[in-house]
Specification:
Elements (H helix, E strand, L loop, with lengths): L3 E8 L5 H18 L2 E9 L11 H14 L3 E4 L5 H11 L5 E4 H12 L3 H15 L3 H11 L8 H40 L3 E7 L5 H9 L16 E7 L4 E7 L9 H6 L1 H9 L2 E7 L5 H14 L7 E6 L9 H7 L6 E2 L8 H20 L1
Parallel strand pairs: 1-2, 1-3, 3-4, 5-7, 5-8, 8-9, 9-10
Antiparallel strand pairs: 6-7
Helix pairs in contact: 1-4, 3-6, 4-5, 5-7, 6-7
Amino acid sequence: MLQKAILADVISPDTSKEEALQRLDELENLVKTFGGIAVVKVIQKKNIPDYKTYIGSGKLQEILDENKSNKANLLIVNNLLKPMQNYNLNEICKKHGIEVWDRVDLILKIFDKHAKSVEAKLQIELAAIKHMGPRIYGMGLELTRQAGGIGTRGIGETNLQIMKRHLKRREQKIKEKLKHYDQIQASHRKQRRSKDLKTVSLVGYTNAGKSTLLNALTKKGVYVADKLFATLETTVGQLYLPSSGRIALLSDTIGFIQDLPPDLINAFKSTLSEIIDADLLLHVIDTGDPLYESKILVVEDILFGLEVSDKPKIYVFNKIDLACGLDVKNISNHFSDFSPVFVSCQEKKGLEELINKVEEKLAVHTVHQVL
């Protein structure tokens, strides 16, 4: 069944119109990536979201009334809902045939849909368990009420404990399995170091063109789609360095996005280990995106959280064929600390200059390691 969604966002009154629309546009793109369509988009300006239902009661009733003609079966809130907010919203909306997801629910479902490897599926399940865990409180509360109310030791309390134990056991099993994959990847990285193979990792906001760039530089043939989170698994290709006649390994990893929850980042730690161990990072930027500067900050913030923000880095301004009136000189001056390169993977422009800069950076990095 096609998912028809109402998108709702609660923002502070001082949020600019541009940022407010950008937030909802990104949420709509996530819905499209999942395979659904947005039929209504709602923005509510409040200093503090409603304690019980996140969306204010008046606005929520407006949404439900409007939906009589739109017939959406999903309400997606563009933030992380607290367990009781999620519970209360679902209790109200299910009477109208509407299921409630928050932003993390949607991202997890996209991940689950796109995951191909066993490792990626395990990572997603682990993130889902961590996201679901706190919500058991609300579910358990309702079960306890059904069992006879507060002060009784009924079936609700028993079911709550069973669910908690089940998730804890499952979480432990997943972590043990993921440790096995960690060991395999660590072994691969050790072999590379023993062969003195330099590693370069692509990072960037989701849909910036990292996989297309990997294909252009290595002819790896990675799946490319105009969708958010098209790549979940790590792919490694060989990058030929003509000046030295050597090979470097170029890896593509999951794209980043604003408000990416820590549990999701932690679940993908083994995938992101390619970034952590890389000798050089290529930060790929969609130059055609009018909000690319704010997305650079999002990526840099996540890199800081991974403790890799000080690694040697090249800013790769991609999709220059789609950027109108691009001020290359001004951008180059502004980001001069990151050796900016301007490329078009589609038109094969700037790739030779990029490879030359990669060689230069790796050579400097090697000298610093020796010293």
